[in-house]
Design brief:
- The protein has a domain at about 335-480.
- It is built from 20 helices and no strands.
- It is elongated, with a radius of gyration of 36 Å.
- By secondary structure, the protein is mostly helical.
- About 85% of the residues lie in helices and about 0% in strands.
Amino acid sequence: MKKFIIITLFFPCCLLAQDIPYRDSLKAKLNNNLTDSAKYVTYLIISDNYNYNDPDSAVYYAQQSIRFAMKHKENLPLWVDWNSYDVLGKALWNAGNFPNAQECFFKQVKQSEAINDTMGILRASNNLGGLNIEEGNYKEAIRYLRRGLPFYREREDKLMNSYFIELFDYLCRAYEKTNILDSAFHYAQMRLQLSMKSFGKQANVYSGILFGMIYSKMGQPLLALVHFRTYLNAVRNNPVQGKDIIDCYYEMSNHFERYQQTDSAIHYAMKSFGLSQKCKFKIDILDAARQLSRLYEFTGNIDSAFKYQTIMIATEEEMFSREKLSRMNMLVFNEQLRQKELEMEKQHQAELRSQRLQLSVLAIVIIVFIIAFLLLSRSFIVSQRFVRSLGIILLLITFEYIDQLLHPIIANLTNHTPVLMLLILVSVAALMVPLHYKLEKWTKYKLTEKNRLIRLSKAKKIIMETEESTDRKRTKQVLTE
């Protein structure tokens, strides 16, 4: 059901994002007698649909989805919590409310970690990385994004692959902004390969912006322009690609400025600014206004430079006021503190696990030594029941040791699914029991043979002592006679 809801949210809404009657029909559905899951999904689809041209409405419907989820929590899966904050955070991000978006993504991380949800943790890492890229905190973005890399492996799941495509996209952008072009090119290639593998050769055009940015900085302007224009020709002003089209125009403006083609740089900066205003993406309005102010100042057009500088200052004050920056820093500090506490707890659990393993090994060695001593000793007879009891204790301690040793591996393989973990441990026990039975049979045989030899030795000794005593008595009697 989890994948059904998320696929329902992200794929059909992308195909129908420009269909306003479809959006109105979804709103009408909210008044029908839908199941709780269907109604929840409808709120999310409407919110995501508005993300492309009306972030404020996207925020409203995302908030409605959270209220609905809290009211009907008993009828919805556990992962609904992080999924709701994922959608709300993105809507707030597009609306330019970065502090609230960041708070939503931190909640998403916490809720995903609480239920060991790989998808939720990966999505939250991507969101925090992308948000920090737009804030200009590129090193912090890389730190968040690299948390998702351990989850990556070859798979046929297109949904998870789409999240890894997003991860590689953000990593490429972060490294490109820090001028580490080798790493940027590496992740751009990984994004290209995975997108083509998952969605076909036609998906290669969506990496055009990344390669355009990289080749522009590598001193290959013609190749950069080929990639930029290939992307724009492929999307053809598709509203679903609005955010990326704005980004492409902005990067083309940077490209032409880099190669001192000011008129072309202004042209594409204006296109980026106009589309940003139409879609109400504040961070893109800020970037484009800053770009235009700088370009017009360079050309000596002071009036236009002042106009866009005024827009830039107003937008920057709205998005990054001292109060908002202080709040964002506090949120980051609290999250870092929480992560340190989690790390300390993990270290404590690791120490406890190490202690349990050491105690288990010590107990196994002691019991094995006792059993070996009893089997090899020729001085006394040992009860089979006693050795059998020691064998059962040894079996239980050995199973506990194997459980402690394999638990992290099993947990990662099964994604902490209790039923699968139980099946694996039952399989291990099924292998151990026959082995224990064979060892117990061999031990009984050796013990029986040892006890027989001891009894025989004692019997011989008693007979010899009896014969010696009889001989002494006879000798004494003969001497007496």
